[in-house]
Amino acid sequence: MVTVNLGVLHYVLDHVYGAFVHRTKISPPFFSRGWGGNKLDQLESMIKQLFPEAASQNWPPSLIQPLWRTVWESKNAILREGVFRTPCDEKLIDALPPESHTARVSFLTPKCISPHKMACVVHLAGTGDHTFERRLRLGGPLLKENVATMVLESPFYGERRPRQQYGAKLLCVSDLLLLGRATIEEARSLLYWLEAEAGFGKTGVCGLSMGGVHAAMVGSLHPTPVATLPFLSPHSAVVAFCEGILKHGTAWDALQKDVAQKAAMTLEEVRERMRSVLSLTDVTQFPIPKNPQSVILVAATDDGYIPKHSVLELQKAWPGSEVRWVTGGHVSSFILHNNEFRRAIVDALNRLPWKGS
């Protein structure tokens, strides 16, 4: 009789998927055009503005005014799509590709219920999530819990993807920082709109993988308690690109060549520079959210992309937050554990008071 270790199978599945996606010639690797030159230096300064000493300087954000159209309407729900100009400051807008200047959201809400008696969660994109559909499927069943779903299309993804970029493989390291910085600004503005303009009684932010890192940052920086739900997420992009499977999909040779120095850098020196640049995405350096009890991290036991220690580092940095473990790897959990993600969303929202109560 052969005993099968399911944990090993899940871990192997991550590596098989990673080998197919990141080690074949089907698409170029991440950062095939290098670091991003002067833009990277400017963005490092912009990212630092998110940290605690400056977190309150741009609050409240400019109130966005999305233009809505109805996609479909049923007896119990309505789906709208909206567009708005990204609320980023002009320096950030100038750094974004023109295709990313207009933000797009999908907004699924229950009907016949006052917003102040409802909650709404903003869902942020994981790596490669170009469309609204997967996140709408995650949030759809929550309508019966009076939880609305707002899905943000990230810069560099979907209709906001620059023409030169193939799929999700960002061309420069600076693009990764720019994507994150703009996503955080847009998500913060959406939360403010949901609270100040739409009047929702509770709000939250969630995301898978890369989207979870961004969700953690948004929840950290929000001036009032929000449900914060990083799913299958590291505490920093350093882990994803320097420790996990994505390191095999990174153009280290292009990064070695794209350094303005007389002496060529070794591979280890290039990787050390990557660690230094991406250390700006370390969520443990961000403020503790206003209500850490409404932070629930869902992590996988056998994740080939995100090691366990990374999840635990964020929990340690945010005392009061909760980690829930699902059995599986990154890919299998992404597919199989949507019910656990939904349960975490409902539980985190239940730990918040209703606004005005």
Automatic annotation (TrEMBL):
The name this protein carries in UniProt is: Protein ABHD18
